[in-house]
Amino acid sequence: MSAQQDLQELLRLLTVGRKTPMLQAMAQIKSLQAVDIRSIQQIAEAPLNTIKTALNDEKTAKSLQNACKAAMKRTSAGGPAGTKRGAPLSTTSLPSKRLRHDDNPLMPSRAFGEELTPQELEASLELPICLDEELISQTVLETNRAPLVLAFAVELLRYTRPEQPLSSRLSLGQALVSANSRSKAVSIGLAAKGPNAEEEGLIGSGQPRVKVMGREVPVLKRGGYEWKDEEEKGSTAAEDQQTTTAQSPSTEPKDEDVKSQSPPPKSVHPFFQPDDIHWSSSGPPVTSKDSKFLAHSTKITKQAQEKVLLNNLMRKHPNLESASHNAWAYRLRDPRMPDRIIERSFDDGEQGAGDLMLRILRELDIEDSLVVMTRWYGGTMLGPDRWRLMRNVVTAALNERGRKAGGEVLSAGGEAVWGLDIEGMQNGGSGASATSTSTSMGGKKATYGTGVVGIQIHKPEVARNYLLRSFHTASAADAGEETEEGGTAKKKTKTRKTQKQLEAEREENLGLLLGALRLLFDSWRDHLTAAELDERAWAWYVAVRPDVEAGPRGWGAKGTLRLKSILDLRRTEQT
């Protein structure tokens, strides 16, 4: 087994088999690697004292070694390591129609350092997503209101605050939930109204704030947090693997073709070297009815660079040559006339694609950027849905570059922030919050927190875990399924599910919920500004939230959530 496979199996054993939080698991692995222990087998065979020294905890060391020994026995019996009774651990074992969950990029191939990198932090926080409309519309969940607010906020911030990484969106969402809970507790008499954070002197009057679903939450800037050191790291292999087989013969009819234009000529320019050009990617291709969409973006400062950059992209990603369309657009400030903006676009047969990309660049107020949208036509016209898909990949590529582009951070979007945990500060630092940049995890450090004494933030992994455990499948009676003439649900033979099956089910349900929210926000994004979308989000939440009893008796109570009700809020042509 390769070192990378050893690493993945060990991480799975820790996070799934032992239910260790991802950040803590990664820190434990780093500690073990410091004493040259890198696999399940090595842990099982190593002296206990060695493991104890690495983890600085005798109980944890002994428990981990026993788990590794048990995993080795299962492996010798024919089951994979890191599983119980041979059951697969990876989320890819779920039916593909039920859930599309991108596996976390577990670890970089480089040797581990002393601190978690931003990339490792963001990778550990990835959430499941499923966009199967038929399945979403059939799903009924049981949950309470607070985690639904969190899910709304995390997904909404992808559109209203695209510059914020997932860790910030989770932190901001949890800050919103906390603020709403405090207000609700006061309104129903469960808590007394006290002085606010500014009156208590916990935060200054000039503390930055971010509006989320109509409520302003205090935030702390993360000091130039950058979680992409190289724009193409980790994306090239995924693109090549998924797009090399997607070819469209030149004789095939093209969707909505009205233009016949020549592709950009290929050339080489002396003042550009290949290493000078950095391309950001929208990620793995997005597929709909066999059509695949992908986008790339890079910096451009002169019109003369246009051909060189396009030629460079085709050399770096030759699979793009097989695409039906490679449309592009750019905006740049004229170096000779600083008050003049130069705009150019090219549809390459995908009618309106160039104008759409220019419109996106204007909306985001982005200059000196070139974006290329690639489509492999699948044989079926997509109608208006193609606009949504093109916008999604183009915006994703621009956002990726916005985090870091060739060493220069773009001005579009703003700086990453943490949501402040006011309640944690009022309680003197108790609770699930962080105060310093070096949080101890298994004897190692995670680059994390605020670095400001007394300032508490909402930890993103706490918010993520809250989401993963909060959405249960509603019972048949609650869902209104299989009713008899009298209107009562038929009794079914219940099969008791294992804890692992319940966790997988809740994760799947979260993916379906986030998919429903993404489809909702996607349908409105071209018709509302970010501020308008934020304002409407709360009304949409109120329209679909579970019905619970009013007053103190309804505090924390659960109710049913029909995901179809979220889909019904999507914009239509008549809206």
From TrEMBL:
Residues 71-104, 223-291, 477-503 are annotated as: Disordered. Residues 236-247 have a biased composition (Low complexity). SUPFAM superfamilies: Ribosomal protein S5 domain 2-like. Belongs to the IMPACT family. Residues 489-499 have a biased composition (Basic residues). InterPro entries: Impact (IPR023582), Impact_N (IPR001498), Impact_N_sf (IPR036956), Ribosomal_Su5_D2-typ_SF (IPR020568), UPF0029_Impact_CS (IPR020569). GO terms for cellular component: cytoplasm. One of its GO terms (biological process) is regulation of translational initiation. It comes from the Eukaryota. This is Impact N-terminal domain-containing protein.
